[in-house]
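U., I forgot to send this yesterday:
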Amino acid sequence: MIRVFVADDHAIVCEGLHAWFDTIPGLSWAGSVGDGLAVLDLAARSEWDVLVLDLSLPGRSGTDLLREVRALRPTLRVVIYSMYPAEEYAAWALAAGASAYVSKSEPLAALRDAVLDARTAEPREAPRRSSPTSASRCASGRSSSPSPAASPPRRSRGTLRWPRAR
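Result:
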């Protein structure tokens, strides 16, 4: 059973995903939170398998949270679920350690597949794909819009994710 936790500041998204994830065999709802600081606190003391993370959260941005959660729990799989276009953010998110990036404009099946694939993906370090300029801009927090990394992995419509382990 894959335990899924959702971090999104829109209650309707969390409630809708809760109801929907409960219908998917093999997935178990682990909870949700709408604040970035709470994500870090809960990640330190909870055991979820996959975090579905929005990039826009009060208290701490999803871009900062991705790096911090991956540092805190390197084996936790993170699926970014965001309204921001995959063309602008997905390559950066994957390079920063996300297992997948799913645009909220995609069908729910894309999110389901990304969560299921994330849990079976091979553990890895974040690839070193970004240029020094884009990496430093993201790390310093001076840019609210992370620059995409070069050559992102497999792409399927608005969803990017790492291939499954064989």
